[in-house]
Specification:
Layout (H helix, E strand, L loop, with lengths): L2 H18 L6 E4 L7 H6 L4 E4 L14 E4 L7 H5 L5 E4 L17 E3 L5 H16 L26 E5 L3 H10 L5 E5 L12 E3 L2 H5 L4 E4 L13 H5 L5 E5 L8 H10 L2 E6 L12 H4 L3 E3 L10 H18 L14
Parallel strand pairs: 1-2, 1-3, 3-4, 4-5, 6-7, 6-9, 7-8, 9-10, 10-11, 11-12
């Protein structure tokens, strides 16, 4: 047999053999409930999903390229990462509680920005509630006077956004049609993606004349307690402070002093430190505090939005493209 025929015969044998060996499946290990990965199975029916316990021993001989896990990690996270994981995705928009030290160079992404729409709607609702004195002006008995009130307006008021990521940008886009004047704070000074928003790089410039201050920055070691006695002193008396980010961004002892002195006229807090807030905490009863249980993200599409970010990145991974929504392990956001 000639060398050319031998080479041809070898190629045919290899082709035949490859048809008999099924392609290796992409395997995802996850700490999430299996039913939550239905969108993944629908988009990638060839992908194998292995459900892991959140603590305790992992399945023997576990191997997986991808790990979908909780944004605060799990007790067995390090063991899961040791099973050949090349990419980790945290099922959440923030990763301030994630144990970065166990990653050891494995890239981490999250579902950053997935809750921008419901959170921005919630912020507009509480800004309107503050200006229109809701629910205080609802009636349960005849008032002393009809047709008279001293209500505020969003039109012409100044909105300060601490942080200018996807959530803050969504807030800005909804605030501008109300006639609000919007500033955003970015340490880098990178240009605004919303042309009508002025970007500043100092808290003093951001806070000095704001009527409403919305905290929308990630919590990192560098941003913890960024609102403190010094930053409250920069605000004009009677300012409305809203937190939809993380409780640790505000020094709550300093907030109490600012509320009692009148520097802060109202604090609307969807995030506090700690969570859950213990019974008897002063934030429950302070007359100038409106408190909710970290629910501003909630909407009918909340969970699908978080999973959509993962599915988008899974498609990129499958095509060999660069991942999106990556977390900087040094900056921790």
């Amino acid at each position: 047999m000639s060398p050319g025929r031998r080479a041809s015969r070898a190629c045919e044998e290899i082709d035949s053999l490859s048809e008999k060996i099924p392609p290796q499946k992409l395997r995802i290990a996850t700490h999430m409930v299996a039913e939550m990965l239905a969108p993944v199975r629908a988009a990638f029916p060839e992908v194998e999903v292995v459900t892991l316990p959140v603590e305790g021993e992992l399945p023997p001989d576990l191997e997986a390229e991808i790990l979908l896990t909780l944004p605060w990690g799990t007790p067995n996270l390090a063991d899961a990462l040791a099973c050949g994981v090349k990419w980790v995705h945290a099922y959440g928009t923030g990763v301030n509680g994630f144990p970065f030290e166990v990653l050891k160079g494995v890239p981490l992404s999250c579902s950053r920005g997935a809750s921008a729409t419901p959170i921005s709607e919630w912020v507009i609702a509480v800004l309107l509630a503050a200006e229109k004195q809701l629910p205080q002006t609802w009636l349960s008995e005849p008032p002393e006077r009809w047709n008279i009130a001293d209500l505020g307006t969003l039109s012409g008021s100044r909105l300060a956004l601490i942080g200018f990521g996807a959530i803050a940008q969504a807030i800005a886009r909804r605030a501008l049609p109300f006639g609000m004047k919007v500033r955003g704070f970015r340490r880098t000074g990178r240009q605004s993606s919303v042309p009508e928003v002025e970007i500043v790089t100092s808290l003093e410039e951001l806070l000095c004349d704001a009527d409403h201050v919305v905290v929308a920055a990630p919590e990192t070691p560098a941003t913890r307690h960024m609102l403190n006695d010094e930053s409250f002193a920069l605000m004009k008396p009677g300012v409305h402070v809203v937190n939809i980010a993380r409780g640790g961004l505000i020094d709550q002892a300093a907030l109490a002093r600012a509320l009692d002195s009148g520097r802060v006229g109202l604090a609307t807090l969807d995030c506090v430190d700690p969570e859950p807030l213990p019974e008897g905490h002063w934030l429950y009863s302070h007359p100038k505090v409106r408190l909710s249980a970290h629910i501003s993200w909630s909407s009918p599409e909340s969970h699908s939005g978080l999973m959509d970010r993962f599915v988008e990145n899974l498609a990129r991974y499958h095509r060999g493209e660069a991942l999106d929504y990556l977390v900087d392990p040094v900056e921790q956001y």
